[in-house]
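tool_call: predict_structure(chain=1)
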Amino acid sequence: MKKYKVQDLMVPISEYATVSENATLFDAVNALEKAQEDFDHTRYRHRAVLILDGSGKVIGKLSHLDVLKALEPKYHEMLDRRRLRSFGFTKDFMRSMLKEYQLFDSPLEDICRKAGEQNVTKYMYSISEGEYIAESATLDEAIHQFVLGRHQSLLVTKGDSILGILRLTDVFAAVYHTMKDCF
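tool_result:
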């Protein structure tokens, strides 16, 4: 595990989708699409957009799931009020919630238009202390952070600067290829 360093597996921030904190959700989706087109097609696709403040510092992430939650503003109220995030649900219960909260009652085009006009900071995920990792860290350190924090990615740092993003998919690929070579 000490053979791999985080810097060997990370995606440089210059190759990752980023938008300013003043961007709309539509701007973020466009940035993600552009990054997908420009990215090395032999690697896994990006699953998030990094949100930058006015000085270029990463202040948050916007994932695919965050964009989908933004389509229906009632999710914010519903998830906060009932603290539903940690519970498992039956299909019938989830279907009843669609009716009870009148989720997605408008045409998809209207829902997408309204969501696309919203500011990304309203839906972004704020970065926690446990989501940073040094470029010199080893694979075992990264795996430890991924497992304990249940993160999809970590921001790779050198001092106070963010150099890139270490994605769970890239760490898994390194582990998979090592495992495959063993057999």
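agent: Residues 77 and 83 are 10 Å apart (CA to CA). Proceeding to next step.
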